[in-house]
Amino acid sequence: MREYLVLQKLQESRHPLTVSFLASSFDVNERTIRNDLQGLDAWCRKQGMQLCRKPNVGVWLETKGRIIHPETPPSSQDFHRQIVYSPDDRQKLMAFELLLRNEAVLVKEFEFLLGISKSTALRDLETLERTWSNTPLQLVKRPNFGVLAVGEEREIRNALFRLLTDESLMKIPVAQKYNDAVYRCLKVEGKQSGAPESGKQRMLDVWLGLRRELDRHGMRLTDEALATYALHMAIAAYRIRLGEQISLTDKQKERIRRQNFHPWLVQLLERMMPSQDPSWPEEEVLNMAVHLAASSMSEWLENSQVLSEGETSLLAAAVHNMVEITERFLGLSFQGDGELYRGLANHLAPMIHRLRYGIASKPACAPAEIDVKHAYQWIFYAARSGAKVVEELFDLSVPDSEVAHLSLYIGAAVERKKGSASSSGVRAVIVCGSGVGTSQMLEVRLMQEFPEIRVRATCSVFAIEKWLDGKTDLFLATVPFQLEGATVIECSPFLDSKDVFAIRAWLTGGSSSFANLRDKLTEEIVAAAAQLGLRHPRLSKEVSQTIASYFANSEKTMTHYWKRSDQGKMLDDLLTKQTVLCHPDCSTWEDAVKTAGQLMEQTGAVDAEYTEAMMNGLRKHGPYMVVAPGVALLHARPQDGVKEVGMSLQIVPDGVTFGHPSRDPVRLVFAFGTTDSQSHLQALSRLMSLFNDEERLSALMKSSSVDEALTLLHD
């Protein structure tokens, strides 16, 4: 049916349509559209039509007067063909077969499944083997035996989780069958395992059934955490059927039992498992208790504790130190911001379990991580510095994906200091599936950009009914979501320029879709150009891409408070011949801090007490100011003796040891002092861009003169 609708869309269009446009129209990837077009070629020729393609122009249909009548759509047999998979998708589908079947798979089976030759299958298996070489998983290949995946049970389950949450892969129909097979291992209340229904409906039934079971025990997960927990449970049930079981040490078992989840989880898991299946072994029940403790929750079971009493005290200390380090880094005070402290604590507790037991979560390259690193670079570095406290107290390594989520809480706290919400105007509800930090960030961004919008509440997709009371004007969703009869605008937690554009257009009575607005604007520009005599087959595409590119590239300057032009001195003003020093005489980190302070003292930016404050910060919190390999960013609070914004830089070719386990020796010693939370951010933003430019950073470390260093800094 999609192929038939593609034909109609091509015939109705007066201009060539790009594959990317068709993919977005039907909510599939571009490869799927190309496969559709490949299947349509022969049918079109039989009907006396031609499907034309041209690079950088698009696809169009030359019908020669033929019309596709709605009452006679082509049959599926007309379009039957072998789907061509990309090498990456083939290897992931092979991984699915190996991990789910838990037995040797013949190469011939891969040939039949994927429609490829033996040589291609062997080449893909070699690539998959190289991909797994950096993981605990291995491929065992033997003649007349086949191929077998081996590895520690938790790693196999984590690998399956990553495959089943690969959004691009799961759009392929053949991949969806693996998802269906896993979810059919769980029983839905009132339905038996294997009941005939669509895969997506079964998955939704499992989520809702699990939600009801958790509700009985007074526990409520966020939407994303609920979906994650259900998938881990389904994978565990599938592996138990195969006779595989997770293993835990005695120390781990005892620690998990103290959480008090174990007794009632036994009944919950038995209710979710089909009656003909074996019971959950104790270690599997304890494993699911760990997963529950590692989930983001909005309501906790009474008398249950995620961490032990001693670790709860450590967590409180970690949160306090994180906030203090962030305050020093950003030149702000978060005193009295209970939401920040609660948010960090609620995120850190399950995070510790995820990292301690190696539990897979969403892919590391999540949009949130990418957005934070680009839009709030200094906040990300502040969170990264603060996370070092958690690493030391709990003996863990915190990945950037978790730091990005911690940054959301800090970013929301920063934005909260800039204003208060409107008490009247448009009434909105935020629909969020990923957690408190995301919704907090969106709410404070709304407060800044749209004071006329009042947020009534934040809720999950499953709890939306409560707000369908006729008193909500607008639903803002951070997850894909549709609601019949209501206006829903999907947006980023950071409210980027496309979101601002869509909301502003809706407020003025226009469309709420950025794509519709872009297309409408494109049509108007192309029509105006035609009136002036300018016509070109690629004009529409170029205009559309330019509009989309403009909003994508200008979102920082258009919508982010930090990027506005009134944020004080730039890097060029602060790092000069007076404040940059090459080859300083310093052999210890104390020497480096003293010299950094003296350089700023000479310009009148700080007092001597500021230097001592920077020293005390390192003594108290350790080398958290070493923000990148070979790079330190020294700082203290504005009230510690800052007169005006100042910066300094020392280039130490031989390096100075600050005590950081992986980023020593430090060859670039930056320092800054600020009088408030805003005046240094332009310069600090430039520094963050420099820290991400490895080539320029390496050249700066090798600078032999101040002039050479300034050229690299200000280029």
Briefly, what is this?
The protein has 715 residues and is an alpha/beta fold.
Q: Would you mind describing this structure in some detail?
A:
- 53% of the residues lie in helices and 10% in strands.
- The chain has 29 helices and 15 strands.
- Mean pLDDT is 80; it is low at 363-367 and 553-568.
Notable features of this structure?
715 residues; alpha/beta; 5-stranded mixed beta sheet; 4-stranded parallel beta sheet; 53% helix
Annotation field: number of helices: 29
Q: What is the residue-mean pLDDT, rounded to a whole number?
A: 80
Ranges with pLDDT <50 over ≥5 residues? 363-367, 553-568
SS elements, strand count: 15
- Helical percentage: 40-55%
How much strand? 5-15%
Please state how the strands of the largest beta sheet are arranged side by side: 11-14-15-13-12
Cα shape: globular
Our Rg estimate from Cα atoms comes to 29 Å
Major sheet: size, sense and barrel closure?
A: 5 strands, mixed
End-to-end separation in angstroms reads 55 Å
Structural class: alpha/beta
SSE topology:
Blueprint: H1 2-12, H2 19-26, H3 30-46, E1 50-54, E2 58-62, H4 87-101, H5 107-114, H6 118-132, E3 138-142, E4 146-150, H7 153-164, H8 167-170, H9 173-183, H10 199-215, E5 220-221, H11 223-241, H12 250-257, H13 262-272, H14 282-293, E6 297-299, H15 309-330, H16 338-356, H17 367-375, H18 377-394, H19 400-416, E7 426-431, H20 436-449, E8 453-459, E9 474-477, E10 488-490, H21 497-507, H22 514-531, H23 539-559, H24 571-574, E11 580-582, H25 589-602, H26 608-621, E12 626-628, E13 631-634, E14 646-656, E15 666-673, H27 681-691, H28 694-701, H29 706-714
Parallel strand pairs: 7-8, 7-9, 9-10, 11-14, 13-15
Antiparallel strand pairs: 1-2, 3-4, 5-6, 12-13, 14-15
Helix pairs in contact: 1-3, 2-3, 4-6, 4-7, 5-6, 7-11, 9-10, 11-14, 13-14, 14-16, 15-16, 15-18, 16-19, 17-18, 17-19, 18-19, 19-20, 22-23, 25-26
